[in-house]
Design goal:
This protein has helices spanning about 15-25, 50-65; strands at about 5-10, 30-35. By secondary structure, the protein is α+β, with helices and mostly antiparallel strands. Strands 1-2 form a two-stranded parallel sheet.
């Protein structure tokens, strides 16, 4: 899965993910896959998927004003589905 203007892959959630999400909010939107590296290798997300999605959503929401929650959602794929 190649990256392009409206598609980004990040192996894990970090500050770069927040920067990408903010860039999507300031342009035409986009899709961000967490658990996939820049080269397209699938790693998945460890741990409780619901908690991880909530953590990503809350972290981003808390770092941006006004609240951007209505413009994005986190959808993650567990590592167990990758095997």
């Amino acid at each position: 899965m190649l990256e392009m203007q409206t598609l980004e892959n990040k192996r894990e959630y970090n500050q770069k993910v927040q920067n990408t999400m903010l860039a999507f909010l300031n342009t035409d939107g986009g899709t961000l896959h967490v658990g996939i590296s820049d080269d397209g290798a699938v790693y998945g997300v460890n741990g409780n998927i619901d908690e991880e999605a909530r953590s990503i959503t809350n972290s981003f929401r808390d770092s941006v004003t006004p609240d951007p929650s209505g413009y994005f959602k986190a959808v993650l794929c567990p590592v167990s589905l990758m095997n």
